[in-house]
Amino acid sequence: HTYIYIYIYVHMSCSKDMEGPTETKNTTMEMESPPLHTRVALHRTWANRVFALVYACAILALLHHHFLNLLYSSTTSLSMFLADAVFAFMWATHQAFRMCPIHRRVFPENLKRVVKESDYPAVDVFICTADPYKEPPMSVVNTALSVMAYDYPTEKLSVYVSDDGGSQFTLFAFMEAARFAGHWLPYCRKNMIVERCPEAYFRSDPACFPETNKIKLMYESMKIKVENVVETGSVCRDYITNEEQLQVFGKWTDGFTRHDHPSIIQLRVSAAMTNAPVILTLDCDMYSNDPRTPLRALCYLLDPSMDSKLAYVQFPQRFHGINKNDIYGAEFKFESQIDPPGMDGLGGSIHMGTGCFFLRRAFFGGPSSFVSPENLELSPYHVKSKPIQSEEVLALAHQIAGCNYEAQTNWGSEVGYRYGSLVEDLYTGYRLQCQGWNSIFCHPNRAAFLGDAPMTLDGLINQTKRWSMGLLNVAFSEYSPITSGIRSLNPLWALCYTHYALWPIRAIPITIYAFLPQLALLNSFSTFPKVSDPWFFLYVFLFLGAYGQDFLDFTLSGGTIQRWWNYQRMWIVRGLSSFSFGMVEYLLSSLGISTSGFNVTSKVVGDEQSKRYKQGIFEFGVASPMFLPITMATIMNLFSFAQGIIQVVFMQGSFEALFVQIFISGFVVVNSWPVYEAMVLRTDKGKMPLKITLISVILVWVLYLVSLLAF
């Protein structure tokens, strides 16, 4: 299928002088410049190292114990050995993040004392969208307006919006936004507004200035128009207020073929039009929350004492609208806030796909091995001299935006974003670092960007399944961190990427622990040491040590106990659903069997769904196949826990021998309360579909019958 690809270009003011990347270094204004940033090691680093050594010894002892049990050729022992071996491997790779974590601070107030404002580099902002029904045009508009309002020289800031869906609704929304921006941007600067996303600003009940009500009325009018257009499915011609808008809108279908990599098209088109040496990449729902964010990035990019190999400055992904206890663990606190400082201390954070300031030069080969594009006008060193609206520039932009342009070129392999994975953001950052580039993780107290998190369980696990497939693409690619990464990066840094790339294999031990000990318990078979056995205390130490360390990391970074509990619960849920299905779909795609591929995560939920989410109620509702293993595990663990209690209390079963299995079943039961509630107690539309519950009961019964033969 082909779709229309529209390229929307929003430029605040043309820069008269676009300088190349080699000119982004600052001009020193004082002999002794004030600090632009600081870096300190975290205090708990040595404690992490000592604990890692002790815990590693315990893991080796456990694996030795498993090896001895394997001499009896027990299928159960082999399965448990596999589960614990995978857990041990993932724990070991995760320790790389804890070996050299650092904390950075920036001082943007010192920037003007080091660099003249006229010497600030130009910045091109890339925003991508694809589906106006899953990514509402008003959300994209708010993101664009928030970055257009940066505290930055207007002639040096350009905002590019690519609509991969070619939607007339998105085009109309930006035609309306262009008019509103003429009032919104001066209002923000005049009144020194900090919250420069219009939707977030007016939602926060702001202080009232003389023109506030007028601006709010204009925004609400624009919002009603755009949302009405999306709802009705057509643009009313009455909304087109002048001849120029009518001509633009009338030609909206004169676009380009759909492209699977809009970021790389933005890179080429921006090179033809403005070629700014600094690039900011943003998700369409990730609005700016701090107008000084570019200045924070420049504290690194313009510091002459920084490594000349610096490729990008990554800000953490943070979210608004998450309910009080983050029931889905959608904040991804470890992945976006806790682990990146550990990578930063080793050489640089991953690229998270959004909130990242790149040097354009980094997309064209390594620091000492420049790869020239086939058209020298796309080179990061090319100085633009023609007006943006000139026919030559527009003709070139149209040509290089075509899908077929990059055939037989280095785009996607050695130049620009790297193809080959559904997580091309992480893959691109990894490939750049393998070429010799470094990066910075900048985590200010005030969130630089705030985005939308999935508000339904189905949306979250589908998103995670897509990531799982992409990560496995990276793990088993030509440039796998397991092989190529070890040669190109320092070993600990490569282990961090290995941890991310093999993220989904946690499905193996989680699935084994969710079913095997429970089936053994139903058959009165013990799979763990007795309470009186010294090996029992090794299991206790390993369990409490792993959970305790994660708990400390989570709470010390500002997380609450309830959020941590929900976070660890979601590891079980993701392991049984998105990780497992992601592994299967990756294997199928490797065999050439078509799978679902890329699917945009919907940012739209109904009023009832939103209400339940705010109340902390899990949203099931749809009969997703990924709910089956979750429901099966909850049913299996409930019955095995009950059976274990009955055996101990009424059948004189050995409590010492069955304690660990009863504990595991009980632990899963406690974590599964939202699922039991959705299956039995709820009557709203977000309950577990009856079909899923019935199929799960049948499959659990089949598993039990099979286990009778195995035990």
From TrEMBL:
This is Putative cellulose synthase-like protein G3. It is a multi-pass membrane protein. GO terms for biological process: cell wall organization; cellulose biosynthetic process. GO terms for molecular function: cellulose synthase (UDP-forming) activity. The chain crosses the membrane at residues 46-64, 70-92, 492-516, 536-559, 571-593, 626-650, 657-676, 688-710. The keyword DNA-binding does not apply. Its EC number is 2.4.1.12. One of its GO terms (cellular component) is endomembrane system. UDP-alpha-D-glucose binds at K134, E135, D164. SUPFAM superfamilies: Nucleotide-diphospho-sugar transferases (SSF53448). It comes from Davidia involucrata. Pfam families: Cellulose_synt (PF03552).
